[in-house]
Specification:
The protein has helices at residues 5-40, 48-76, 82-115, 122-125, 134-158, 160-167, 189-218, 237-241, 245-259, 261-268, 300-315, 323-326, 331-334, and strands at residues 175-186, 222-227, 230-236, 274-288, 294-298, 319-322, 338-345, 354-360. With 361 residues, it is of the alpha+beta class. It folds into two domains: 5-158, no CATH class; 172-360, Nucleotide cyclase, GGDEF domain (Alpha-Beta Plaits, 2-Layer Sandwich), CATH 3.30.70. Helix 1 packs antiparallel against helix 5 (134-158) and helix 7 (189-218) packs across helix 9. The longest helix has 36 residues, at 5-40. The two termini are 24 Å apart.
């Protein structure tokens, strides 16, 4: 069964957290070995069994933290402020790591007892959790959980790709890229915004954008910006045209909104439906801002995609794409959708006409 991108991201996040704890434990083991040999005044000898046991402890601690993070901490702290989410996460990370260590002790005792290869004193093994030795362990877990939680929160809030872009200075020097842009906003959102009020309308948008984020990721899209009730999604030209990913993404979003219509009608008295415009072309990509840097795309391509989306209401269509993009789609994929040539129009702000196609599933 093929992983959805979001499922894969969750799996990678869990593995990453586990790996961070393993790395921290290994660093601690090495540090303690060096310090111990210095205090004793003789070279340290490497004990393979002790090292492997330490690695196993780290895997159990990190694995439990990763699972608790995925199924408890992420949903629990989703609406918390950064500070409270950070503090709550650290506390739960420490507690989860302790649970992981405790589970390891129990498993180790059970394995030794079953195979009968040695003697395991469970009470002696649990002394670490019952006496003063527990305080240094607690301090150690707290100190390694602080940076791990902070890094995980930053990646979650900023995004993996943005972190990597900033790390490698990909957009420090502006450069030209060829990309697909989709401007997508809600049909009939103005009346519902007035009816619900600001707070309830924000909750509606929060839920809608959360519900569609996995689909955007699944079809290799990237959220460029959220603007009011609109979301701007972008693809690099290869991924966007491959199997018509950009179009399939929109159709899947529409399908999901239909499937969730009951939930939204009960909660908000409104069924979210999107209209979208797509265009492809060259843009200048680069960083702007001083105190707060942001990656932006400038060029006629972005503006044209926005203008195409605005024509959806006039032509009573949910999805309009430019002819430039339409001609890039594989023919075998186009045969699976209904297409209608709308015509060539002079859009606001453009000197040349833009030919549009409507696509229906």
């Amino acid at each position: 069964m093929m992983f959805e991108n979001k499922t894969l991201q969750k799996t990678l996040a869990a593995l990453w957290i586990t790996a961070e704890y393993v790395a921290a434990f290994v660093a601690y083991y090495g540090l303690m070995t060096v310090i111990g040999s210095s205090l004793l005044g003789h070279p340290s000898s490497f004990d393979l069994f002790s090292f492997l046991r330490f690695i196993a402890l780290a895997f159990f601690a990190g694995g439990v933290v990763a699972l608790v993070n995925q199924f408890l901490i992420v949903p629990l702290t989703a609406k918390m402020s950064f500070l409270w989410s950070f503090l709550a996460g650290v506390v739960l990370y420490v507690f989860s790591a302790l649970v992981g260590l405790f589970i390891y002790v129990l498993v180790e005792h059970l394995v030794v007892s079953v195979i009968g290869s040695g003697y395991s004193d469970l009470h002696a093994a649990l002394q670490l959790f019952l006496h003063l030795e527990f305080l240094p362990l607690l301090f150690f877990l707290f100190m390694i959980s602080l940076p791990i939680r902070n890094l995980h929160l930053l990646i979650t809030r900023v995004g993996e790709k943005n972190i990597l872009n900033a790390l490698f200075d990909r957009y420090r020097v502006p450069h030209e890229e060829e990309r697909i842009f989709m401007f997508m906003d809600l049909y009939g959102s103005t009346p519902i915004a007035e009816k619900l009020g600001h707070a309830r309308y924000h909750d509606l948008l929060y839920n809608v954008f959360n519900d569609i984020s996995d689909l955007i990721s699944r079809y290799s899209g990237e959220v460029y910006q959220y603007v009011g009730d609109a979301v701007i999604v972008t693809w690099d030209i290869t991924q966007g045209t491959k199997k018509m990913n950009c179009v399939r993404c929109f159709f899947e979003i529409q399908n999901k909104m239909s499937a969730l219509s009951g939930k939204y009608r009960r909660s908000y008295g409104y069924q979210p439906q999107f209209k979208a415009g797509m265009h492809v072309g060259k843009v200048i990509a680069g960083e702007v801002g001083d105190m707060k840097k942001e990656i932006v795309y400038h060029g006629d391509t972005v503006n044209t995609a926005s203008r195409i989306q605005a024509e959806c209401v006039h032509f009573h269509q949910h999805l309009l794409v430019s002819e430039e993009l339409f001609m890039m789609f594989p023919v075998n994929c186009l045969q699976k959708v209904q297409t209608e040539f709308i015509g060539c129009l002079k859009l606001k702000g453009r000197t040349h006409d833009v030919c549009l196609y409507a696509l229906l599933k």
